[in-house]
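Quick one - inputs below.
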Amino acid sequence: MTSGEIAKLCGVSRATVSRVINNDKNVKAETREMILSIIKENNYVPIAPARRLAGIASNVIGLFVIDINISESTTRVSKSTYFSQLVNFIIDQANNFGFQVLVSIVTSVKQLNEARDLFISRMIFSGIFIGAFNENSQLDDMIISQYPTIIIDRQFKSMVENSNRLVINLDNFEGGYEATQFLIKLGHTRIGHISGDLRKLSGIERYEGYKKALNDANLCFDTNIIREGNFLEDSGYLLAHEILQENITAIFCANDGMAISAIKAIKERGLKVPDDISVIGFDNIVIGNYIMPSLTTVDAPLQDIARECIEALNYFCKNKHFIKNEIKIKTNLVIRESTKEL
Amino acid sequence: MTSGEIAKLCGVSRATVSRVINNDKNVKAETREMILSIIKENNYVPIAPARRLAGIASNVIGLFVIDINISESTTRVSKSTYFSQLVNFIIDQANNFGFQVLVSIVTSVKQLNEARDLFISRMIFSGIFIGAFNENSQLDDMIISQYPTIIIDRQFKSMVENSNRLVINLDNFEGGYEATQFLIKLGHTRIGHISGDLRKLSGIERYEGYKKALNDANLCFDTNIIREGNFLEDSGYLLAHEILQENITAIFCANDGMAISAIKAIKERGLKVPDDISVIGFDNIVIGNYIMPSLTTVDAPLQDIARECIEALNYFCKNKHFIKNEIKIKTNLVIRESTKEL
DNA sequence: CTGAAAGCGCTAACAA
DNA sequence: TTGTTAGCGCTTTCAG
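Output:
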């Protein structure tokens, strides 16, 4: 079914049908009604590629989960609860605004090229990037500097000022600070940290928050009770076993997955959570509420990130530029049972 | 940049450029080389909508996560680890085969209409549906009977034979049977069951497997120790508390999320896993390996499902029909610490 | 308020 | 082996 056929059925020209579809005001009300009803009756939907070719911009957003393989590991960060949830929220929100979402998982430079091709071929009008390392000049040069993009979890400063670019971040620093400060208020002075991947902004900033809180409380900063993890359960488990050989009473883990597996390590060593060791995570994944003891954590409002993303994109469609260049989302401490006063 | 500009740079016609892009054999080898190098040099990528319009089929797959709201609950099944993982694997696999994936979360009949429009507007050439209720005539009538689709977790029998349709399922029955049989072999005779959503095939079949195993072992089937859950953590927790008022020594939960939260309920009642109650889940989500005790479960090879999906679609692209109508994926028992000999 | 006609960038049949 | 040309289905000036 084409607009020509609809036009014939309606006894008007294709131009008029097109006007109705595009909400052009220059159509007599009753003509519009009539055409609309015939369209509905016939389940007519315009052929998207034809509209695209004629100049109507795509309504498809590219959502790119950057997951360049870390070392030999076959586990992928893109498979973590955190990413999956965020992807989900973004899709959901996008659909509510009438956008479609093309999701790609980028695990190699080749796929980064394919991502760029999606812009060039006009499949997508904009892209959202999550999971990239804080420094990634390839990504910057090939895509971010060329096309309208939203970047999640990446430093704003490193990028050239540009109204085609928006950076959205959690306030990871504040979250890390609050988590650590909370432990300090409970009386802990020997607080270990299992960080996230320190090539990612969230890993860096949560760690920085931890350091600042220790410093503000005049507690000594001891690298013996700090380990660099990678946000995956595995590293939380392994590194907790290491840290536990030191003298500590609490651990701040840079995400919940690592916190849960750290708890396993703690229990395996015959210690109790929170009686012997307090544990606090980050993200607030669902399952954290269902383990024993339930997990104290820092809630990352992923839904807010998704909303900001799509609202910004919606504005961009109308105005051809973003209204801001940077958005920061507040986190919230969620106190449960894995932490205890000393 | 258009094929015309490339043609000019190469001193050939647009037709020849088009031929090399589409791998037509009727191009002199050296001409092809030359054109290819100019294309690469200029980062030329054909405008996708123009190719579509000219008749080249879309390479975009629609991936629809059906999640019509159950009751008043705001929690969504589409946000569960299981779905997220599967979606991820499918995207990954699709990208490897050169397909793009448009993901939609369908939470209303309106969005079901939008899904259909994606086919009509030629945005996608095929769709993969997951999460639908076993009986959903709307979905069948509007989409599945009209367009080439792959359906995951739905009964084959209810659909008309058609080479444009492929059903892929886990062997949920066998998985449920094995899980229950394993508990029986450990000496358990009072085995409770917290089922999944019984409007979904996976919920039904896992339950059926449980029943059959009891029956084959001549154990009594007692509805007092069975509850209908909905695959979400919440229901596992609540229903475990109910079941635990009965006399049981083991619970088979229809997925890991419910199993983990059932363990919480068990512990809250002062009982121990596995000493007092054995628990077995289904799916084998990552975190199950990191709780204490680690979770015995039935592994659902989601990666296999994804591979079958994309291979089938790849075949479909070349042959305009699927090679089979139904694929069943075997599950595997994963024995860990949450189960124990009586 | 409506119609005629040109053009978006590509492919494919036909000619050469 | 290559070029010419006619669409694909839509939007959008420009006339009326």
